[in-house]
Amino acid sequence: MQTRDRNLIASIIRTLTAIRNNLCHLPAHLAQNILSRLQSMQIRFSRGVQRHSIKIPKAAMASIHTRLLAGLHGSPVHRPSLSPQEQDIVRSIHEQTIVANQNNVTRTEAYRQIYFRHPELHWAFLAHMVSRNGGWNMTDLKGELLSRLMGDRERTEFFLFLERCNSLIFQDAYPQLLLYEESMQRNTNLSKLLPEFFVSNFMKPFWDDFWLRKDPAMLTLALIVNEQNYIEGRVVQNFPYKQHVLNTLQFKMQSLFQLTQVFFPYRAESREGEFRKGKISPGESRQDRSNRTRLAGIHLENFSDLNERIQFGKQLYAILFGIPQVHQTALEFAKRVPHTGSRADYWPDLFTAFLPSRQESTSQGSGAAGVFPRYRQERLVACRLQSGAPPFYSPRLEDAWQDQTFQVPDRRDWFRDDSPLQHFVSVRAPVLFDMTDNFCLELNKLELAVLALEPWREN
Questions:
Q1: Amino acid 249: pLDDT
Q2: What phi and psi values does residue 407 have, to the nearest 5 degrees?
């Protein structure tokens, strides 16, 4: 497809998005009818976007399957004694993991750095971008809108749930990435040391295969399957988290906030093909420049479902690495924009990381509804702030939450049978991957909920 054709398609989709963002002012039946028609049109136009399949080689997968079955039904493997050099490697990786697992910002940066050192580790970049979303979800809980809709205890429980998921995945996966890096530096496969970090037996055949063939798709899918199984028993099916988070009304009413949305900031190609340079055309406003940053991703319907979470991760991988336009510009975003946890990272004209000066004296990270002045009128129209309206407060992580002490999890291995191998099939990005309009609609719903509840809060 020619560049001018892609630009025309992008322009039409932006127009449809602007229309869609205003549908909340229409009667429900009429809005739904228009939404259905717009979705059909968007599917047609999105077909012009280049999408590559993430392919899984059958022969390599069959070999790994055989090895995994042999490990399941064979005698337990005893961990050999380590040489002094190997002990030093294990100790160093443990120490690096503890330091980097301080909070969401340090974890996100650790993923970013190791990907830039080893771009063959696709999962590291996927984890970096997903971790950014985790940070934005954490700070939403202390932001201007959710602070008015949820109590302090509820917000703290949701934060601890997010923090536990993030930190557990990191402490399991990051040592694997560092061990691979150490293997590359020493030019020898050190996967035999994986048990020293209590990594599931499921992962070793995939790392051995990756050492030989350097197929990033196989390893990435293995890590997606591994990490979701890893948190399944330790968090998702853990009774306190189920009772206080997953079974709560707030979590089930997912439209209230974006806990189950994950997206990657990207840019639509400009007419001059200079989307990566951030150049502005003559007469283009700062608002227009900000709106050129779009959001590619998907929405997870049921977080409690393990298979759905795995499929969700695979779809995100296909979007990030299977759509060149998304991959190239998301990578540029990751290089250019440090992660702070504030949504101002990607939309600085819609969000701000700083409270107005008259509120700066409030205690750090309080985020309580009383911190903010009375919410008098709607600010957001068609994903733009109305003239004179202040941006939404979206704090940095360091201003919202204190670092948490990491609680060491149980060391049992989740891998019990070969059912996880059903997920190793080729995957392609969905046609409807742009969720800029969806995010704006959800943000608008949040704002309308705040406006509706404001009189009750005052009384």
A1: 45
A2: -95, 120
- d(CA 150, CA 237) in angstroms, rounded, equals 24
Residue 383's domain comprises 52-458
Rounded Cα gap, residues 430 and 146, in angstroms: 30
Q: Look at residue 433 in the predicted model and tell me its pLDDT.
A: 92
Q: How many domains does the chain have?
A: 1
pLDDT tens for 126-171 read 999 999 999 999 999 999 988 888 888 888 988 998 999 999 999 9
Most confidently modeled range among 260-264, 318-322, 438-442: 318-322
For 57, 83, 144, 205, the CA distances from 61, given in Å and listed in that order, are 6, 33, 48, 10
Establish if 47 belongs to a structural domain.
no
